[in-house]
Amino acid sequence: MSVSLPKTMSAVVYRGVNDLRIETVPVPQIGRSEILVQVAACGVCPTDIKKINKGTQSPPRIYGHETAGTIVKIGSSVRQLCVGDRVGLHHHVPCMSCHFCRHHAFAQCQTYKRTGITAGFEPAGGGYAQFVRVMDFCLPGVVKLPARNSFLEGAMLEPVNTVLKGIHQLPLIKDDIVLVAGAGPIGLLFIRLLSLRGIQVVATDLIPERRRLARRFGAWRILDGAAPDLNESLQRLTRNQGLDAAVICVPVDTAVTQAQSAVRGGGTVLLFAHTVHGTTMPVDLGVICVDEKKLTGSYSSDFTLQREAARLVFSRRLDVRQLITHTFPLQQTDEAIALAATPTPKSLKIMVVQEKPVCV
Ligand SMILES: [Zn+2]
Ligand SMILES: [Zn+2]
Predict the structure, then answer these.
(1) How confident is the model over 299-333, as pLDDT tens digits?
(2) Ligand closest to CA 93
(3) Is the pTM of this model over 0.85?
(4) Does domain 8-161+302-353 bear CATH number 3.90.180.10?
(5) Are 107 and 85 in contact (CB under 8 A)?
(6) Ion ligand 2 — residues with CB under 5 Å?
(7) Ligand (nearest to CA of 43)
(8) Which of 50, 52, 130, 200 is 20 to 30 A (C-alpha) from 78?
(9) Which CATH entry fits the domain spanning 170-297: 3.40.50.720, 3.40.50.1360, 3.40.630.30, 3.90.550.10?
(10) Which is it for the CA torsion 308, 309, 314, 315, positive or negative?
């Protein structure tokens, strides 16, 4: 099957700090071992917002990395994928053979650190464009979508994978009590996935609507993250034993301090939202050494969890559709990003969607 492709397309080009422009750019060319995907949906992710708001990378770039769409062209040596396949994409895929990969530290692998999906310019994901080129080393990250699942669900595979990776780092057993600080889209994913594993989740957030949602996603108890007696409440809920673990889904340092005192000896505090280098805070090293409390972090996805993430999303045991509150057309990507950057009580996951296929 072949389709006639346009020569140019619309893309949201990052031209500098908070400067996104709709531009007409060439449809990417692909090599023998690559594929071209027509984008149908792309999630707005906090890591892209950070790059756009803070200018941490040089322009021009086309961002957007939580992408799902339809394959419209394949290179001559590509097997197992066809034109017309509906797919979800992963823009980082590890080599699986280097020293880091052998240690399961995929996010530190040099191949993984390369972004293998682009709509032009320096590769940056490209999902805020009509077409993306998927490079050869990212083909193992292409996941076919079952017919009953939507592109929106497909675009959630990458964020779900990052959350699963975080959970796999926690040494938990059934009925453990775990704090999830922050009940935004990522926090809600943690709440649901932890509760599916038989964990009793205590969720905190400052926004009452989000606390209610946390309950709907399976939280065992909900608390106001700003309550002055938060620590006492956590001790009471754990019968003074302390939390088995805490996941910090907000980039708030006091939440880390609080969690460190609320976890039990040998418990773990997992950082998930402190994604900016240079953030420092005092740590009582005796708490780490004598009390054996672990302070750890998790970033990005784990290739070996791709199947598990897909199974959870496609079976709807983890129904990600409940998380998607807003969709914007490509032309309004800046509005989508602005809303995701300053969420309202009613907004959770924001998606940029392209309803009308250009071809196929
Ligand atoms: Zn993301
Ligand atoms: Zn590697």
Answers:
(1) 999 999 999 999 999 999 999 999 999 999 999 99
(2) 2
(3) yes
(4) yes
(5) no
(6) 94-95, 98, 101, 109
(7) 1
(8) 130
(9) 3.40.50.720
(10) positive
